[in-house]
Amino acid sequence: MNRWRTLSLRGRLVLLYAALLILSVGLVGCYSYWNIWQLFISSKSSHLRASAKPVIEHWLIDCNLTEQDFVHLSFTAHDAASLARDLTSRNTVAVILNRQAKILANGKRLPEEPTAPAPDNHYLRRALSGENEITYRSKVNATPVLVLLIPLRPHPASPHIFGVVQISTLLTDINRILFRHGAMLIGIMAVILILGVAAGFWLIGISLKDLRGLLVTCNQITSGNFTRRAHVNNPRDEIGQLAKSFNQMIDRIETTFASQQRFVANAAHELLTPLTGLRGSLEVLLRGAQDDAAAVARLSRGMYKEVDRLIRLCDQLLGLSRLEGSSNVRKQRIVLSGFINDFKNQAQVLAQDHSMIIEPGPFVTFIADPDLLKQILLNLLSNALHYSPPGTSIILGWRLLPGQVEIWLSDQGIGMDAETLSHVFEPFYQGKAITVSGEKGAGLGLSLTQSMVAAHGGAIRIESKPGQGTSVFVTFPLQ
Questions:
Q1: What is the pLDDT along the chain (479 residues), one digit of tens a residue?
Q2: Which of 25, 144, 331, 364 has its CA at 20 to 30 Å from residue 173's CA atom?
Q3: Can you name the residues that pair with 134 across neighbouring β-strands?
Q4: Structural contact between residues 333 and 372, judged by C-beta atoms closer than 8 angstroms
Q5: What is the CATH number of the domain that holds 127?
Q6: Which domain holds residue 362?
Q7: What is the C-alpha to C-alpha distance for residues 41 and 33, in angstroms, rounded to an integer?
């Protein structure tokens, strides 16, 4: 078993293929050999019976044994001897037995004629009971012989049996033919096995070539080369499908790795900006500005603002980390129409110079965390307010989809281009658009929103075009 484990995949497949090939070819060869042997035995048996039948019929007539009433009087050893001699030839010998299983005559007269085997009482009893087709093998001086038993009747339809003819013939000629046939089968099987194993080794090597290439690609990717991809000759087979899935996995890993690198760089940049401001203010204070009350007040307000920004940034980062799984989501059944009506009151306060419109959908209930759902809507509303000019409308509504409920929010703001849409959910990504107020956030709002939606098993998508506003669609499963 240990040696099997140390073999390569190609070696295991070749050994398994060779074992199956040997088994199948061996079974076919044995079945063929057995069928031919049965054919020879059946043919020889039928030939002996067909040759013996007319001889026995003439013998019955010549000896006046066709009348069953006189059988016990007319059947003598002399009559049996004549039948035995007539049925005996150079390769065949006949023995005549009476109902008491006593040998009345043996047809062998010449030395070159075969020797008859001793009668087998088991088969002899079956023949005396009326069974016609009895054929079995026996041995005489270690030489195999074929034995036939033919019950003697006054006529074929008679139920009375007054003796049995035992005809035996040597199987030397059949064994000789079967030996040549077996040798030929062994030779053919050996050629088939050699060619089959060689072809299997070659075909398996070709099939595993793509797998070896996949291994090389894996090693190159492990060393840090994420640009490498697996290439196969047949993309439709199992290895091709594996290579396709592997390439998709590497694409995702490369995207995730690049996103993480951008996240770390952006996080460091966002944290460094307020920290740099704090350091600058502290340096001014250390150089003597603490004696100037107005400067101290101004610097203190600036440092407080930067610290507040740092706290908000850390809170958002902690929010992202908490939503990695769904363990922090406290779900309960929510009636969406009532929830939206409650949210509308707060939304109208935040909207200020904007018009807040609710387009109610059908009655629906679903399972969600009400606090997170409220935060999702607040984040979406905050983005819409920041990128929409005063006096425009913000529309909030919902509708039913198969197995889902979709909540959507649309604004009439400046919109986003295709490049911004492709990165909008990345942490710290802010795009090129400027908010109406001229201020930019940390770029974590939509990332946090996406994490909150994903924690519910839902999905979020955005449709937007420059100058045509933005629509955000959030779906939650009903079950």
A1: 566 666 666 677 777 778 888 888 888 888 888 888 888 888 888 988 898 899 888 888 888 777 655 545 456 788 888 888 988 888 899 999 988 888 888 888 888 888 889 898 999 999 888 888 899 988 888 888 999 999 988 887 778 888 899 999 888 888 888 888 888 888 888 888 888 778 777 877 776 677 777 777 777 777 777 677 777 676 777 777 777 887 788 777 777 777 666 666 666 656 666 777 777 777 777 776 666 677 777 777 777 777 776 776 676 666 655 555 445 678 889 999 999 988 888 888 788 788 888 898 899 999 888 888 888 888 888 888 888 888 888 999 999 999 999 999 999 888 888 888 877 877 666 665 555 454 555 566 777 788 888 888 889 999 988 888 899 999 999 87
A2: 25
A3: 149
A4: no
A5: 3.30.450.20
A6: 332-477
A7: 12
SS3 string, the chain, reads CHHHHHCCHHHHHHHHHHHHHHHHHHHHHHHHHHHHHHHHHHHHHHHHHHHHHHHHHHHHHHCCCCCHHHHHHHCCHHHHHHHHHHHCCCCEEEEEEECCCCEEEECCCCCCCCCCCCCCHHHHHHHHCCCCCEEEEEEECCEEEEEEEEEECCCCCCCCCCEEEEEEEECHHHHHHHHHHHHHHHHHHHHHHHHHHHHHHHHHHHHHHHHHHHHHHHHHHHCCCCCCCCCCCCCCCHHHHHHHHHHHHHHHHHHHHHHHHHHHHHHHHHHHHHHHHHHHHHHHHHCCHHHCHHHHHHHHHHHHHHHHHHHHHHHHHHHHHHCCCCCCCCCEEEEHHHHHHHHHHHHHHHHCCCEEEEECCCCCEEEECHHHHHHHHHHHHHHHHHCCCCCCEEEEEEEEECCEEEEEEECCCCCCCHHHHHHCCCCCCCCCCCCCCCCCCCCCHHHHHHHHHHHCCCEEEEEECCCCCEEEEEEEECC
Q: Is residue 154 part of a domain?
A: yes
pTM: 0.46
In a domain, 8, yes or no: yes
Q: Say if residue 315 is in the same domain as residue 374.
A: no
Same domain, 31 and 153: yes
Can you tell me which residue has the tokens 């088939």? 192
